[in-house]
From TrEMBL:
GO cellular component terms, semicolon-separated: cytosol
A Pfam entry, by short name: 4HBT
PANTHER family: ACYL COENZYME A THIOESTER HYDROLASE, CYTOSOLIC ACYL COENZYME A THIOESTER HYDROLASE
InterPro entries: Cytosol_ACT (IPR040170), HOTDOG_ACOT (IPR033120), HotDog_dom_sf (IPR029069), Thioestr_dom (IPR006683)
Gene Ontology MF annotations: long-chain fatty acyl-CoA hydrolase activity
Superkingdom assignment: Bacteria
Species in which this protein is naturally found: Caryophanon tenue
Region forming the signal peptide: none
Similarity comment text for this entry: Belongs to the acyl coenzyme A hydrolase family.
Protein name from the UniProt record: Acyl-CoA thioesterase
Domain HotDog ACOT-type, chain residue ranges per copy: 9-121
One BP annotation, GO: acyl-CoA metabolic process
Key words of the record: Hydrolase
Amino acid sequence: MTEEMKFCRQSRVYRSGRVFPNDFNNHNTLFGGRLLSNMDQVASIAAAKHSRRECVTASVDAVEFLHPIRPEEYVTFEAFVVWTGTSSMVVFLKVYTENLRNGEQKIASIAYFTFIALDENGRPYKIPGIVPETEEERYLYETAKQRNNYVAEKKQLNKELVSFLKKKL
Ligand SMILES: CC(C)(COP(=O)(O)OP(=O)(O)OC[C@H]1O[C@@H](n2cnc3c(N)ncnc32)[C@H](O)[C@@H]1OP(=O)(O)O)[C@@H](O)C(=O)NCCC(=O)NCCS
């Protein structure tokens, strides 16, 4: 492995916490916006650990809210870099819960966050490549590579959408 490569485990971050009444929506389950904000925070730590640079979130893809999160559960966020481009990093984010009364565990949410590492002038900065080791990391690496094929297409479509919207301003 060259100096320019890092293992997925080197960026891995975990954060666990309880959910409090202020975090809930009208259905007494965790508010999706609050969950996303926490996911972005944890994912940004993984991106910074991989690149050791300032990073910005470029896009958030394939967010799935799979199960509502209830007051009797605590939440764990797990994030790590699964794929890298030149300055971009795809961070996979997994949120799981455990019911504190009966120990039942669930995957509550998953998402892919793309971060861009920046240099001192705020321009994209070349980052180390990524080396997956475990079965899960290899699976995520391969599928993230396929997902990345859509990035250029999505960017072009969004560019067209933004020009269209600007005409309406
Ligand atoms: C993200 C940002 C730096 C990209 O700038 P840019 O001038 O379009 O950069 P480039 O076209 O040179 O692309 C740089 C990299 O970003 C990637 N990228 C840019 N937009 C992207 C998007 N929407 N999704 C995924 N990757 C993206 C490019 O593919 C490229 O990756 P690579 O270096 O691995 O090949 C810029 O759009 C930005 O600052 N956006 C605002 C970010 C922000 O405020 N986030 C919220 C708070 S952190």
